[in-house]
Structure formats: C-alpha cells, structure tokens
Amino acid sequence: MEEKIPIKSRTPHGLVERESIVKHRAEREREREREREKRCTRVVVVVVVVVSSRVVVLLLVVVVVVVVVVVVVVVVVVVVVVVVVVVVVVVVVVVVVVVVVVAAVVAIVAAAVVVVVVVVVVVAVAAAAVPRASASCVVAVVVVVVVVLVAAVVAVV
C-alpha cells in the first residue's frame, strides 16, 4: 500500500512543496517501475523457455515417429520382396524339377516301348525263321529281357 505523504507542508510562508518528499516519491515510483519490468521480463523469459522446450520436444517426437514409420515401411517392403523372390524361386525350381522328371519318365517309357517293340519284332522274325523247339527258347529269352527292362524303368522312375 502506498504511504500518504503530503506533497505540501505548512510553513510560516504558506504551503510549500518539500523537495525531499517529491524526490522520495519519484524514486519509489521508479523503483516500482523497475520491479514491474523485471517481473515482465521474467515472465516473458519463462514463457519463451517453456514454449520453446515444448516445441523442441514435439519436434523430436515427430522426428522419432517419422523415422520409426520409415523404418517399418522399409522393413515390410524388404520382407515382402524377399518373400516374393523366395516364392518365385521355389515355384520355378518346382516347375523345372517337375518338367525334368516328366521328361525323364517320358524318355524312359518311350525307350522301353521302343525296346519292347524291337524285341517283339526280333522275336517274331526269329520265331518264323527257326524251328518250333528253338522258338520257345527265343520267347523265354525275350520275356526275360523285357522283364529286366521293365524292372529297370520302374527302378529309375
């Protein structure tokens, strides 16, 4: 609270301002003004520090979130690409193996058929050319050869 100090005092010559009172009052007013300015400055500094620290924290959070999202997206893309490549490689290998196995089986069966046909033709020609007793021997040999060929084909397959 402000102290009531009379600016003028009574003297034998009338009301006169006291210089010391005026100076004292002016000094107190200047001191109050300085205190107000200091308080204002402190408030502004505190507000700036708090706001700037919050902004920095928010920026750091945003940067961390963006980095995490980018890393997750890159990892997901890499995993998807690796899975797709592995699936494609497995499919290609399976297709190649199936084609090779089928081709091998077809080749073996074709060779066996050709051998059987050749053996049958040879047996027929031999049976026509030789007497009856020898023909049964030729047929037995041909049957043994055919059985061995069929067993070989089955073993390979």
UniProtKB/TrEMBL annotation:
Which residues are listed as membrane-spanning?
Answer: 43-68, 74-98, 105-127, 133-156
Q: Which UniProt keywords apply?
A: Membrane, Transmembrane, Transmembrane helix
Tell whether Membrane is among the UniProt keywords: yes
Q: What is this protein called?
A: ABC transmembrane type-1 domain-containing protein
